[in-house]
Design goal:
151 residues; alpha+beta; Arc Repressor Mutant, subunit A; 2 domains; two-stranded parallel ribbon; 5 strands; 36% helix
């Protein structure tokens, strides 16, 4: 497994991949300097840096999605949520043709291993609440507000 680290306004981020595809982007506690990383990881890091500078709204990296068919369907739908916009878990459930499956959609969201690039942070509760986020509610709130301020 290849890896590279990024210092971001939200703290250190670890980017992992294999076979020229991104497999994981996660918030971590400690930044680690790595001198040698494959070009595809350097490109992903660069794109994330551009995102945090407000210069990138879409990512152009190859992803390797690993999960159940339903989870992958949800993650692919997340990729369609426009930058700076949010939808509810209920709306997302309708989009994946499982209108009563908002809890299942929430669980699939929770299993997303590619933070920010697959924008699960853009999914909120029907009452406007944020719901959960693997990186923490503060990070989810920041990402939503950040994107709205740039959009």
């Amino acid at each position: 497994m290849d890896k590279i680290y990024l210092k971001s306004i939200l703290g250190p981020i670890k980017i992992e991949g294999k076979n020229e595809k991104i497999t994981k982007v996660s918030f971590i506690n400690e930044y680690i300097e790595i001198n040698e990383s494959p070009e595809y990881l350097k490109e992903c890091k660069k794109q994330l840096e551009e995102y945090f500078l407000g210069k990138r709204k879409e990512f152009e990296v190859e992803l390797e999605l690993s999960g159940t068919d339903f989870q992958i369907k949800v993650w692919k739908e997340l990729l369609k949520i426009p930058y700076g916009k949010t939808i509810t878990y209920k709306e997302l459930a309708k989009k994946v043709e499982n209108p009563k499956g908002y809890r299942a959609v929430g669980n699939a969201n929770n299993k997303n291993k590619i933070a920010i690039i697959i924008p699960c942070h853009r999914v909120i509760l029907s009452n406007g609440g944020l719901g959960g986020y693997e990186g923490g509610i503060e990070k989810k709130s920041y990402l939503i507000d950040f994107e709205k301020s740039i959009d």
